[in-house]
From TrEMBL:
<dbReference type="InterPro" id="IPR013103">
    <property type="entry name" value="RVT_2"/>
</dbReference>
<keyword id="KW-0548">Nucleotidyltransferase</keyword>
<protein>
    <submittedName>
        <fullName>Reverse transcriptase</fullName>
    </submittedName>
</protein>
<dbReference type="GO" id="GO:0003964">
    <property type="term" value="F:RNA-directed DNA polymerase activity"/>
</dbReference>
<dbReference type="Pfam" id="PF07727">
    <property type="entry name" value="RVT_2"/>
</dbReference>
<feature type="domain" description="Reverse transcriptase Ty1/copia-type">
    <location>
        <begin position="1"/>
        <end position="75"/>
    </location>
</feature>
<keyword id="KW-0808">Transferase</keyword>
<keyword id="KW-0695">RNA-directed DNA polymerase</keyword>
Length: 77
């Protein structure tokens, strides 16, 4: 899901006759966009938080979930 509006030219082979100068508004992030990895991470971070994982303060690519029996799970991105 994008936070800002992004437009792109109509792809070759999909141009509408008489509307060649129209653009397409993206509804979701695509691979290849600069925003795609950030949007993926934000979604991952949200889902992991919902599952009880916490980000470490020293590295935002490390998520930890601790259990009452002193066991824990570490996820590394």
């Amino acid at each position: 899901d994008l936070e800002e509006e992004i437009y792109m030219e109509q792809p070759e082979g999909f141009k509408v006759e008489g509307k060649e100068n129209f653009v397409c508004k993206l509804k979701k992030s695509l691979y290849g966009l600069k925003q795609a990895p950030r949007q993926w991470y934000k979604k991952f971070e949200y889902v992991m938080g919902e599952q009880g994982y916490k980000k470490t303060s020293s590295d935002h690519c490390v998520f930890v979930q601790k259990f009452s029996d002193n066991d824990f799970i570490i996820l590394l991105l």
